[in-house]
Amino acid sequence: MKHLIFLLLLAGLGSTAFSQKYITRNGYIGFYSSTPLEDIKADNNQAASVIDISTGEIVFQVLIRSFRFEKALMQEHFNENYMESDKYPRSTFSGKITNIGGTGLTKNGSYEVTVEGDLTIRDVKKRVSAKGTIDVAAESVTAESKFIISPEDYGIKIPSVVRNNIAKNIEVTVKITYTPQE
Amino acid sequence: MLVLLGSSALKAQEDLLDLLSDNEDQGPEKVTATFKTTRIMNGHSIERTPAGQFDFRISHRFGKINSGFYEFFGLDQATMHLGLEYGITDWLMVGLGRSSYEKTFDGFARFSLLRQSTGIKAIPVSVSTFSSLALRTVDLPQPPGSSWFDSRLATVNQLLIGRKFNQTFSLQITPTWLHRNLVDYGTDPNDILALGAGGRIKLAKRISLNAEYYLIANRQTYRNEEIHNPLTLGFDIETGGHVFQLLFTNSRSMIEKGFLGETTGSWSNGDIYFGFNLLRVFTVR
Q: Touching check for B53 and chain A: CB below 8 Å?
């Protein structure tokens, strides 16, 4: 009996050690707003994310201050006026791949996926869904997606003087390369 | 054992987020937007133009409000200052300006020595140096034996020490030394020492209430008029690429040399000038 418990414990330890989780702290998340007056683009190469390829669960976390703009003034206004990054320093997404098969994404290959989950920006939580591609290889997992969000949905007020400079729908691009979690 | 497994699956998504918050980047983060522009009101603030940014400034001061209806409360008269300022790097900013007041040209250089930041290597204040030259070219009687150029120069050196306490409140202390190569009267000091203090209270995201005061250690007369400590109150209004500063001040001049050495207006007498600074930002690289 003692041996059995020991074996069970060992098996339990073994399964946690053999993790199906992949992680990154320098993923890319960018957004692009295009209007006839002005194009605004921002990049963030410090997005953190974890994906569990056995269950299809995926989470993201990004620091708002880490978005870099072409113009310093845009970056200041983004942080000060629109995102209030001192008050709401980070944005998170927590979701799941909805069209996942029985074995998850554990086999090497390319998967067309739909991810559904909660996107939290400025403490406003919204249910969102996005399509993307996930490539699973031996030592890394890469994920790519493009989706549209609207600043209005997250309580971001845009004053009338710049209303024509900022798009109502903003394209978000996600490009992540994960490595196995140690 | 099964129960444990079940509950862990439910918590899985939160656990994944916990993995990320474990060692979140705590690197130093520079504090931005201590003030809306490079001026608190008349004087410089610790904000600088970032590398590759041009600031074009148009400033006006109208006449004294107490000049009455005949002068339309000062609006009939105006002095102006034009300025073009540029960030060579994120820590070096230069500017050129021209005032209609005594037909004065001015130029300045500013170095950012410290930037207030948070995180592991937190710095509590931002510190910059400010050095300027002003050359008045208005026709004045030239004292014999003096050089035209030298006698019309004045220099100002300042240390700008500012802190953003929170989103609403920022404060700056500004020790100042003004040197004038030639003064009007023998009793006037060539050197003026002053301590400036200025701050802002944000009233809304794009509007702040600003105040600025300079305490002059050795006040003297200026052309037979008593010198007063300059006090300026006003608002910053930001609209995207523009910032408007609407203000009330007892100084006519819009540059350091003038508002420190030549402020003859007194708030208590109602010698108040209404004015504005208009700033347009251009990013060239």
A: yes
pLDDT tens for each residue of A48-106: 999 999 889 999 999 999 999 988 889 999 999 999 998 999 999 999 999 887 778 88
Q: In this structure, what token pair is assigned to residue B16? A: 């994944």
Q: How far from the centroid of its chain's Cα atoms is residue A71's Cα?
A: 24
Of residues B10 and B162, which shows the higher confidence score? B162
Asked if the model's pLDDT at residue A134 lies above 70, the reply is yes
Quick one: fold of A20-180?
Lipocalin (2.40.128)
What is the C-alpha separation between B89 and B52, in angstroms, rounded? 7
Nearest chain B residue to A64 by CA distance is B29
Read off the pLDDT band of B11 (50, 70, 90): low
Distance from CA of B169 to the nearest CA of A (A): 14
Domains of chain B: 32-280 (2.40.160.40)
Residue-range domain boundaries for chain A = 20-180
Phi, psi of A101 (to 5 degrees): -80, -175
Tell whether A77 is within 8 A of chain B (Cβ).
Answer: yes
What φ, ψ does residue A53 adopt, rounded to 5°?
-75, -10
Residue with tokens 């540059």, as numbered in its chain: B255
Of residues A64, A31, A161, the one with CA closest to residue B241: A161
